[in-house]
């Protein structure tokens, strides 16, 4: 059973054109995915996968100042995606929605460019995405291999699952084995939330609070700093 994803489409098209994919090719695709935002359910995951593939092939750089101070390729790709999705405002990387998109694009590019994952990392990610899609389709080849207590109804959004997997990999010396990797295709049980989930929940609650005291401000800053450190693998 062949399942088409943004990653396979990108790889196939690039191979047909050249052995060395270009940065512009991936930026053009970011625009295409942005244009389908709101009408296609998979535009976000395809954008994610292209960020991984682009960095893996060396088309995207992990230099945080590649396009000027504080404008890494993840900012460029995120802005193109957002503008294509219909945004007419100035692209502010500090705005909540944009900040998260830029952060996720950065996570994807840094993961794709990380040499410790080896030459089979794209296939590893592809297998994860295909596993989720097969579970969603209730394909018999995977339904008998689901983690204990998990069903197709427990699947997380494809984008969310991939982001959680990439975050988890930052703490690893080697790629997670298949059975552990595939767990990230499912929603996190409230009783099993990891540190990132708990910190993000706490931060959201504090930001919504009417209490703007120095203590609350300090708590938000502390949590934000911890999340940043986790994202850096510290």
What is the string of helix and strand elements? HHHHHHHHHHH
Overall average pLDDT: 85
Q: Which oligomeric form is depicted?
A: single chain
Report the uncertain regions. 10-17
Biggest beta sheet attributes: none
Question: What distance separates the N and C termini?
Answer: 40 Å
Q: Quick one: overall form?
A: globular
Number of domain units: 2
Structural class call reads mainly alpha
What Rg do the Cα atoms give? 18 Å
Question: Using DSSP, what is the number of strands?
Answer: 0
The number of helical elements comes to 11
**What percentage of the residues does DSSP assign to strands (E)?**
under 5%
Estimated helix fraction: 55-70%
Description:
- The chain has 234 residues and is mainly alpha-helical.
- The protein contains 11 helices and no strands.
- The chain has helices at residues 6-17, 23-35, 43-56, 73-84, 96-113, 121-136, 140-143, 158-169, 178-182, 195-208, 214-231.
- Helix 1 (6-17) packs across helix 3.
Question: What is this entry, summarized?
Answer:
With 234 residues, the protein is mainly α. The chain has 2 domains: 6-187, no CATH class; 192-231, no CATH class.
């Amino acid at each position: 059973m062949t399942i088409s994803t943004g990653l396979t489409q990108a790889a196939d098209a690039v191979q047909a054109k050249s052995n060395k994919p270009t940065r512009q090719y991936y930026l053009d695709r970011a625009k295409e995915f942005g244009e389908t935002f709101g009408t296609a359910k998979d535009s976000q995951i395809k954008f994610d996968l292209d960020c991984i593939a682009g960095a893996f092939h060396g088309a995207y750089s992990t230099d945080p100042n590649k396009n000027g101070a504080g404008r890494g390729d993840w900012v460029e790709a995120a802005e193109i995606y957002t503008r294509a999705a219909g945004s007419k405002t100035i692209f502010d990387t500090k705005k909540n929605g944009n900040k998260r998109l830029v952060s996720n694009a950065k996570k994807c590019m840094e993961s794709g460019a990380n040499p410790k994952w080896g030459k089979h990392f794209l296939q590893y990610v592809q297998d994860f995405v295909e596993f989720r899609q097969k579970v969603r389709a209730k394909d018999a080849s995977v339904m008998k291999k689901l983690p204990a207590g998990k069903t197709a109804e427990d699947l997380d959004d494809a984008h969310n699952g991939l982001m959680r997997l990439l975050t988890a990999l930052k703490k690893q010396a080697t790629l997670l084995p298949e059975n552990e990797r595939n767990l990230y295709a499912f929603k996190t049980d409230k009783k099993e939330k990891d540190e990132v989930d708990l910190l993000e929940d706490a931060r959201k609650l504090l930001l919504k609070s009417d209490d703007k005291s120095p203590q609350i401000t300090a708590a938000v800053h502390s949590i934000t700093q911890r999340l940043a450190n986790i994202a850096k693998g510290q």
